[in-house]
Specification:
Chain lengths: ~170, ~180
């Protein structure tokens, strides 16, 4: 191989090859460099834009997160407030119910006392009526035993006198 | 007792009778008292199983000896199913007859008997009090317990023990313990 290489080397060919390569590079540079550069610039710009967009989105995400945190805190505050309000209302309702129960008990006790008073009065009246009936019955029997014709005559004469006296007045 | 019906019958009888009012009134009162003493008579007069003729015959036989006007009147009352009104009618009729004579009936009620002299004194006093000539009727009613009760028309002079006890009972019941 080395023998073949050394034997075939031609400086002119070598120079021509270098020249053609240089020309090729030149042409390629002239033809491709600018588009490639433009492409690279666009690509860089795209990446920069993407990064900027990512930053913006990141900022937005942070802002959204902050907003969400705020909302969460607000919701928690509202929930706490609602719970507090419910507790206050429950306390008020319990107090009101207790008061109503007390009032109802008071009313029932008053009604019971009133009924007791009525029952006592009725019992007293019944006892009084029975005592009166018994007294009148005894008085009636005693009078019946004592009444006779003499007594009736005396009463009749007294009545006659009373009639005349009243008329004369 | 239906006072209105009794008054109408009594007035009708008064307008129908032409003579012997006093005697007829006394008979009517007597028969009414007898009927009242025996409630079976009223039941018999109201019995639907007896015909009107049978009732008429029964009245004629029961009231035999009474004036025909009186018997006819009682038969009419029985026919009109007003037998139970007879005592009230008789009472009204008697009062109307007495009123015709310018008199009124006085019923003196006592628990025991009362002698004639005392009754006369009492009637004289009642006449003076009411300024009316009175025809008295003495009733012994032990339920008044004692004392005297004089009724003249709508007026009543009540000195009976029963009424006094009732008043006492009423007054005591009104007392508050």
């Amino acid at each position: 191989m080395d023998i073949n290489f050394s034997l075939n080397f031609d400086i002119l060919t070598f120079i021509l090859s270098l020249a053609s390569t240089a020309i090729l590079f030149f042409v390629l540079f002239k033809l491709l460099w600018n588009p490639l550069q433009a492409y690279m610039d666009r690509r860089q710009q795209y990446v920069v834009d993407q990064i900027a967009q990512a930053d913006t989105q990141n900022q937005e995400a942070v802002a959204t997160n902050t907003e969400a945190q705020k909302r969460l805190r607000r919701v928690q505050e509202e929930a706490t407030e609602i719970l507090e309000t419910a507790r206050v209302r429950a306390d008020q309702t319990a107090t009101k119910l207790a008061e109503e129960l007390q009032a109802d008990l008071r009313k029932r006790r008053e009604a019971f006392d009133a009924q007791l008073e009525i029952d006592q009065q009725l019992a007293q009246k019944e006892m009084k009526d029975q005592a009166i009936d018994l007294s009148v019955s005894i008085a009636s029997q005693l009078l019946q035993e004592q009444v006779d014709e003499t007594n009736t005559k005396a009463r009749a004469l007294a009545m006659a006198e009373k009639m005349v006296m009243t008329n004369e007045r | 007792m239906n006072a209105s019906v009794a008054q109408k019958y009594a007035q009708a009888l008064l307008s129908a009778v032409t003579d012997s009012h006093q005697m007829k009134a006394e008979q009517l009162v007597l028969i009414a008292q007898n009927f009242q003493d025996q409630p079976a008579v009223f039941r018999l007069l109201e019995d639907p199983r007896l015909s009107t003729q049978e009732k008429q015959t029964f009245i004629a036989q029961t009231c035999a000896g009474a004036d025909n006007d009186v018997i006819d009147f009682i038969q009419l009352i029985a026919k009109n199913q007003r037998g139970r009104e007879l005592p009230a009618i008789a009472e009204y009729f008697e009062a109307l007859v007495l009123a015709m004579q310018g008199k009124q009936k006085a019923v003196i009620t006592t628990a025991t008997a009362l002698d004639k002299e005392t009754l006369a004194i009492l009637i004289a006093a009642a006449e003076k009090r009411t300024m009316t000539k009175l025809v008295s009727k003495h009733v012994i009613d032990p339920s008044i317990i004692g004392g005297v009760k004089v009724s003249v028309g709508t007026q009543t002079f009540d000195d009976s023990f029963a009424t006094k006890l009732q008043k006492l009972q009423s007054d005591l019941q009104k007392l508050t313990i």
